[in-house]
Amino acid sequence: xxxxxxxxxxxxxxxxxxxxxxxxxxxxxxxxxxxxxxxxxxxxxxxxxxxxxxxxxxxxxxxxxxxxxxxxxxxxxxxxxxxxxxxxxxxxxxxxxxxxxxxxxxxxxxxxxxxxxxxxxxxxxxxxxxxxxxxxxxxxxxxxx
Length: 145
Ligand SMILES: CC(C)(COP(=O)(O)OP(=O)(O)OC[C@H]1O[C@@H](n2cnc3c(N)ncnc32)[C@H](O)[C@@H]1OP(=O)(O)O)[C@@H](O)C(=O)NCCC(=O)NCCS
Prior knowledge:
Layout: H1 2-21, E1 25-26, E2 30-34, E3 45-49, E4 53-59, E5 70-78, H2 87-101, E6 106-111, H3 116-121, E7 125-131, E8 135-141
Parallel strand pairs: 5-6
Antiparallel strand pairs: 1-2, 2-3, 3-4, 4-5, 6-8, 7-8
The protein binds coenzyme A.
């Protein structure tokens, strides 16, 4: 019983320390709503946001990515009322800066077919793979890496 309580307290202390290490604002001008703190690596996931939208990203494990050192953009969404004003591109550029700062060489996305034009616009290329539901696999080299 004493051992269990000690473990619980230890876990709580670790979690608090981890929460402190979580910077609410990343240097790219993004709010980190969820993330692994400073001990990140393959498999780490973040939810990032600016005032107009959010993105969910993951550092892919080597076996899952098309190329080593890839940040997978699972989702990037701008508030409905803010679309068509450049906020999507601005958010993407911040996410791209984030990718560079966590050491990623590539970014990968499986885009909805009707958003492919957006990803082409911000520099992605189609890889030629499509998935069930028509999602289109796309990739971009992180500039400056
Ligand atoms: C896709 C999305 C993020 C774009 O955000 P946005 O703020 O409307 O985009 P921007 O205003 O920054 O557009 C930047 C450029 O991309 C173009 N673009 C935006 N959405 C596009 C689309 N669906 N297809 C083709 N081009 C698109 C714009 O015309 C603009 O080009 P321009 O500068 O030459 O005029 C937004 O529509 C969205 O949240 N959609 C729902 C979620 C989604 O589909 N996310 C992507 C898949 S994960």
